[in-house]
Amino acid sequence: MTWRVHSDRVFAIGGVRALILQALHPLTMAAVAQQRGFEEDFWGRLDRTGRYVSTLTYAPASQANRLAAQVRGIHRKLRGTDPVSGEAFRLDRPDLLLWVHCCEVESFLTTARRAGAPISDDQADEYFREQVLTARMIGIPGQLVPSSLAEMAQYFRDVQPYLRLTDAAQKGVRVLAVPPMPKRVRLLTPARPAWASLAGMAFALLPTWARRLYRLPGLPTTDLAATGAIRALRAGLVVLPDRWIGPPEVRAARAQVEQLLQRAG
Fold first, then answer.
1. What is the pLDDT tens value at each position of the chain, 265 positions in all?
2. Helix crossing, 11-22 with 191-204: angle to 10°?
3. Are 214 and 203 in contact (CB under 8 A)?
4. DSSP 204-232
5. Quick one: which of 11, 16, 86, 185 has the fewest CB in 10 Å?
6. Torsion angle, CA of 36/38/44/48, rounded to 10 degrees?
7. Residue numbers of the domain that contains 221
8. CA distance linking residue 193 with residue 198, whole number of Å
9. In angstroms, rounded to a whole number, what is the distance separating the alpha carbons of residues 161 and 203?
10. pTM of the predicted protein model
11. Does residue 259 belong to any structural domain of this protein?
């Protein structure tokens, strides 16, 4: 199920949605801001995050374990400061790692399903069960990790009282919405409007409570419009040749998933 979700054509939009959602946690966003923020090496950070997820998804276990150990080592050395209390905190705190993990996997799954990927509730539960392993690899105790749709929904209900839109979050998502690009890329390619469309769709796909924290419309019509837009986008992407969409490991995973689905039925 992890291969099926992570090889879906709208996976990248789910990743952007996860970043926007993660920014609503005050300590997580304070840590990002204090570690040079989104604005410094934006594309490098995005690329490293994508490679991390891809490695843990598709690479041999030995390679995935090595990378997870490297990331754990980096997190152990990093500290942040609570902007309200002034107290120092570790970036490898289980609750902070859990927040990042849940935002990621919930966003990947929700985006794919809203785009029309045929994933049942039982299959969604299976995906979350598989993702307990990746959470443990990054240092989160397995018993803390939601392993079903119901547990994930309960996690977000429990954490909502601690979330808010801070100045650091506002600054971070502004960079996310309008990231730095070389002048020739801005002027000679459609990269800027393409990214703006992707980011706008990711914002629209946020849960209602998160859109309201961002002071965005939280009406049911917004959900319907966002679902219609992401379904239309996925329908267009599905007909493109595989060689045009995603790196080799994603294309290989997509081919194997298609073979399994054909054999299943």
1. 999 999 899 999 999 999 999 999 999 998 888 876 666 667 777 888 888 999 999 988 999 999 999 999 988 888 889 888 889 999 899 999 999 999 999 999 999 999 999 999 999 999 999 999 999 999 999 999 999 999 999 999 999 999 999 998 998 888 888 877 888 777 767 778 888 888 899 999 999 999 999 998 766 677 888 899 999 989 888 776 666 566 676 777 777 777 777 777 6
2. 70
3. yes
4. HTS-HHHHHHTT----HHHHHHHHHHHHH
5. 86
6. 100
7. 2-238
8. 9
9. 20
10. 0.88
11. no
Tell me whether residue 255 is in a domain. no
Q: Give the distance between the most distant pair of CA atoms in the chain.
A: 58
H/E run at residue 23: none
Instruction: Provide the token pair at 24.
Output: 């609503």
Residue 125 lies in a domain: yes
d(C-alpha 148, C-alpha 56), whole Å: 20
Write the CA distances from 149 to 122, 123, 129, integer angstroms: 9, 10, 10
SS3 181: coil
Return the C-alpha torsion angle 47, 51, 53, 58, nearest 10. 150
CA–CA separation, 236 vs 231, rounded Å? 9
Q: Token match 């629209």: residue?
A: 204
Distance CA 223, CA 253 (A): 30
d(CA 128, CA 88): 32
Into how many domains does the chain fold?
1
The answer as to whether 113 is a domain residue is yes
Q: What angle do CA 242, 54, 143 make, to 5 degrees?
A: 135
Instruction: Name the token pair of 219.
Output: 């009406």
Going by the DSSP 8-state scheme, the letter that residue 1 receives in this structure is: -
